[in-house]
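Record filed below.
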Amino acid sequence: MIELIQFKRLFIITLMVIATCPATAQWIGYPTSDVPRLADGSVNMEAPTPRMANGMPDLSGIWISDNTRPGEPTPSDGFSLSSSRLMTNMGADMPDGLPYQDWLIPIVKEHTDNLAINDPHIRCIPDNFLRAYGLPHMLKFVHTPDLLVVMNEMNAGYRQVFLDARALPDDPAPSFQGYSSASWSGDTLVIETIGVRNDTWIDWNGSVLTEQAKVREEMRRLDYGHLEIKVTVDDPAAYTKPWSVTLKQRLVVDAELIDEICLENERFVEHMNLPY
């Protein structure tokens, strides 16, 4: 019975991803400039990290969740969709899972048992930045010395990260992406974010961020084709202690964003025909 439920859940999640990932979502074939390539023409994903004129790592590029297993070659075709297993359970790599507050435990269980039928993602609500890192949708980073803009192909979303280490607002109006200020620590971009909405999920299980959350990202471009983001969440309203995960992204080349607009006449939930 447990195996049947797990299979059903995996099947529904697959349908959700397919429903929001049309094959035409990428501008296929237009060559990305200045791509380092190997002798066989494939992308040299381990080439040196690009840098801006000021010497800092350049995070620009189109990125997607990297779910490559240890020992496997990193896809370099630019179109192998991937989603992190943390998309389902953000605490999957923690021995005891996420340290939920008592009130959140039954809510996560309910969302898990009903296959996340109330997930804001499948109801076309924007994803916060933490969840976006794990979903199989492309993110385009536009990086200047003063600003990092992250464009999400899903529902044409965007996020701004200001790189002048400005003070975060004292009483922010909650938003989907919150308010982000950053500075460099060596080659690591350290981003501090507050002011996210209470109703933003971070995985399929229904784990959340609340308005009290403080999120710290330590973002490093390891080489040409790989981005590593260590995320630390301090959210006493939802969790008993701060927790950290490391999310990985890989570069996509010879492609461009094309809108995936779930909001246009969305009918997926109606057609799921589930008894909830």
